[in-house]
Amino acid sequence: MNVQQSLNAEQRSVIEQVQHNCDISDANHAGNYTLCIYLLKMREYYRWLHALDFSDEFDSDAMSQWLREKEEIWDAVADQDYQPIDLQDQQFDAFDSAAINQALHQHDFFYHAGIGGKGIQHFFVADKISQFREGEIDITITGQEYARDLTAPPAMSTQSEIIVRQESLKRMCWERYQEWHWNRYENPMGKALSYYSFEQSITDALQQMVETEQHTLIQHELGEMQISREFGDSWPAMMLGLLGSKAELLARSVRDHLADCRTTLPYLIEQNNPASLHFYFANLTYMRKELFPSAVEAYQQWSENGEIRTLQELTQCAADHWQQTLQLILAVAEQNPQNPASQIVDLIEQSRF
């Protein structure tokens, strides 16, 4: 691990322990990806591990050797339990993030352990850039990461906390820039990127994007948390029965649309930041655009003539629509708990807005 030389022995020890648990998680879950996705994630993981700049070329032989060594490490730890974290002469359960962060406070480190999509355990430790509260929600922004697993989402939330990982968000922004740069299409992504000085300095432009787009991520997570409070355990219980199905993907898209119509889009419209609005629509998946064509039309209208009122009014109506759709999905699952997937697919496909 390429760790800053200024880190002390206790910090290094924590990093090694967290990385060990990351390796256990990856050993059990990395094989779930298709070969193409797996190799892409490993390339990105290699770049992070070796602190390579986004513009640096890979040494193919060195990466191949590292890949073999990493898979050997995973083979060795696959059957191990997650290890507690030893810190300040105390031992903490690996998932007791609050207690570990209290002990790490003097180091300006931030630690998180949780369970993400498909029941995958995630761990990471990073520099803590800032912490603040929005209402009753604690929000943490992290910087350089010292230990992490293969999957590193840019943002995550618990019942009372939102975490934005700037390093992961910067990597996502770079990937979007790189994809666009190959063809330079006149599309929403190109319009978003035009507001940043990539021609002068890719590093500075990426940092500017991160500092802007982290607020969009926070708004989406706030919307997700609002939905979780409203629907309780019924939603995650239903989703467990839909894992890996088309119904799962469609249901997640409906939930994302509801979260964004409640918080993300109203925030972006109020801020009236063209770069962020273009970036938001550039990142909508094909499935989400198919379910919400009226939003795409309203965006195109705003993009052409600067009139945002249509998008603003649509967002307000759509929030009610997606809430009703989500309630209907849960009703279908309750009425047919054994096999609701096909009915849910039909329901959602008929609920395009």
What is the 3D shape? globular
Largest sheet: 5 strands, mixed
SSE order in H/E notation? HHHEEHEEEEEHHHHHHHHHH
Unreliable residue stretches? none
Query: Please, how many helices?
Result: 14
C-alpha termini separation: 48 Å
- The helix-and-strand class reads alpha+beta
Please give the oligomerization state of what you see. single chain
| Range of helix content | 55-70%
Domain count: the total is 2
Mean pLDDT: 90
Beta-strand share of residues: 5-15%
Number of strands: 7
Q: Provide the gyration radius in Å.
A: 21 Å
List keywords for this structure.
353 residues, alpha+beta, 2 domains, five-stranded mixed beta sheet, two-stranded antiparallel ribbon, 14 helices, 60% helix, 13% strand
Write a compact overview of the structure shown.
The protein is α+β, with helices and mostly antiparallel strands and 353 residues long. It contains 14 helices and 7 strands.
Question: Could you walk me through the main structural features you see in this protein, from its secondary elements to its overall organization?
Answer:
The chain has two domains: 9-152, no CATH class; 172-349, no CATH class. The longest helix is centred in the middle third of the chain and has 30 residues, at 202-231. Helix 1 (9-29) crosses helix 3 (60-77) and helix 12 (293-305) runs antiparallel to helix 13 (309-335). The mean pLDDT is 90. The strands form two sheets. It has a five-stranded mixed sheet with strand order 3-4-5-7-6. The protein has a two-stranded antiparallel ribbon with strand order 1-2. It has helices spanning 9-29, 35-49, 60-77, 97-104, 166-183, 188-193, 202-231, 234-240, 246-271, 274-282, 286-291, 293-305, 309-335, 341-349; strands at 85-87, 90-92, 109-115, 121-134, 137-148, 155-157, 161-165. It contains 14 helices and seven strands. It is an alpha+beta fold and 353 residues long.
